[in-house]
Amino acid sequence: MKIVSDKTAELQRRAEKARGMGGPDKVAAHKKAGKMTARERLDALLDEDSFQELDQLRHSRSKDFGLADKELPADGVVTGLGRIHGRNVCVYSQDFTVMGGSLGLAHAEKICKVMDLAVESGVPVIGLCDSGGARIQEGVDALGGYAEIFYRNVQASGRIPQISAILGPCAGGAVYSPAITDFVFMVKDTSHMFITGPEVVRAATGEECDFDTLGGTETHSTKSGVCHFVANSEPDCFRQVQELFEFLPQNCFEAVKPRPTADDPNRESAVLDRIAHQDAKRPYQAVEVIREIADDRTFLEVHAGFARNIVVGFIRLGGRSVGVVANNPAHLSGALDISASEKGARFVRCCDAFNIPILTLVDVPGYWPGVEQEHGGIIRKGAKLLYAYCQSDVPKVTVVLKKAYGGAYDVMSSKHIRGDFNFAWPCAEIAVMGPQGAANILFAREIRKAAKPEEKRKELADAYTKQFSNPYLAASRGYIDEVFEARRTRAKVVNAFRFLRNKKVPRIAKRHGNIPL
Asked: Which residues share a beta bridge with 326?
């Protein structure tokens, strides 16, 4: 017979109140808006019966502005430990039914506790964000709470994976914590992120905008680049988080566990042969190449809607997690611009931080020209990708598929910036610039004096192509390790990464570099 003492009954009463969140009416309104509760979200994200809550009974110490008379169950955030695919993880889930999920000091301290536990235990931390921002009633204590979280985000960066899922509003200073984390998820029609809301924008600048235009999923996944993944619903979001989780290690000191595959590492691809033999000016989707190389043709694309002239994401090769960076000729001819450089740099640094090898697929005509790019800082911002590759010391394999012109050839993990294995297809063109531009500069006088200038230009461009726009000069210098038929690409890169599995590079002793931010 179960004995229930007065003290046990009191514990049960308090726990039940905390689990009741903002009360039946607010919970009902929350669900009517199509949103799951904070606790339902954790149940959907984590392995069944794996969640262990911490600080359930913690609440604000502030008594100002009527807080003394308010019930704040769990202080508006549910925190604790759990598992995803059997792996330990620390989590927090903000509860919008309690004062709009606003952050006060106790709320922040609960988040800080699980972040500290995550770093000390070497496990990822996942935040489910649904908050109107700082709790105004707590003033500077709320601001201080945010700063404590930001500080921990930075200290944990590169040590443990940090993932943020935006499942409602994320406003004001609250946006900076997700911005520092490694990956940000948003849900269509539900998630919003902005520094200042539409009314403040209207008052300050006169600009008219709504929540979606200002900070919705479309804005942040295609224009600002804040959002890495877009989900159609909350369950879809949690499925995507779980999928990403399998490509990441527990921490920077561990490798990602391999997954067995029946896909033949020596599988050849007729699709890659077709792409290699088609006209160099005919665009193709980089994703098509990536899937042909990957185990089971499976690719998890990151930042799919942003800077589409470069594609980044995760595949497995021989069962092991690999990050991919590929120029995408279907957009801006695959040229590097400001957004593509920043997108690529962030991804390369993430892979390097977490011991994930990098495969680079090159088809790049150069940096995108124009006054807007120059004035926007393409020199400084374009250098971020160069810096990221030069700094990384994980295994790096590069395949030049078609074009590799100018400084962009150097930047895209060339042998000169310490690519470990650099390969090329026979159709690859490696040169300072394209043949037409080179002919115009090198043979300007001859073309001008020719009876038929256009025919002469074509003749000289063809001669330049034969001499320089191919992989063989680079191969003769040792800058390309091997030229092979496109259909054999999977076998070559799988074998290269297998060889590099135990690569070790001594780091130069210094505090840190000064990336051109």
From this structure: 311, 361
Q: What whole-number distance in Å separates Cα of residue 328 and Cα of residue 496?
A: 23
Beta strands per DSSP E along 134-178: 162-171
Residues 6+ apart with CB under 8 A from 312: 301, 302, 303, 323, 324, 325, 326, 343, 344, 347
79-124 tens-digit pLDDT: 999 999 999 999 999 999 998 888 999 999 999 999 999 999 999 9
Residue pair 105/148 in contact by the 8 Å Cβ criterion: no
Answering whether pTM is above 0.90, one says: yes
Residue 126 included in any domain: yes
Which backbone phi and psi does 305 adopt, to 5 degrees?
-95, -5
In terms of domains, do 60 and 173 share one? yes
Contact 285, 328 (CB under 8 A): yes
Q: Look at the chain and count its residues.
A: 517
Q: For residue 219, list its beta bridge partners.
A: none
The residue range of the domain holding 441 is: 435-468
Same domain, 21 and 54: yes
Q: What rounded mean pLDDT belongs to the chain? A: 93
Enumerate the β-bridge partners of residue 423: 399, 482
| Amino acid occupying residue 174 | A
- CA 411-427-308 angle, 5° bins: 50
Catalytic positions, please? Answer: 172-173, 407-408
pLDDT in tens, 231-260: 999 999 999 999 999 999 999 999 999 999
Q: What residue ranges in 142-211 does DSSP mark as E strands?
A: 162-171, 183-187, 192-194
User: Is 1 a residue whose pLDDT tops 60?
Assistant: no
Q: Looking at residue 515, what DSSP letter applies?
A: -
**Hey, which bits of 55-190 come out as E strands?**
77-84, 87-94, 125-131, 162-171, 183-187
Query: Is residue 255 assigned to a domain?
Result: no
Residue 476, SS3 per DSSP: helix
Q: What is the number of H-type helices and E-type strands within the chain?
A: 21, 16
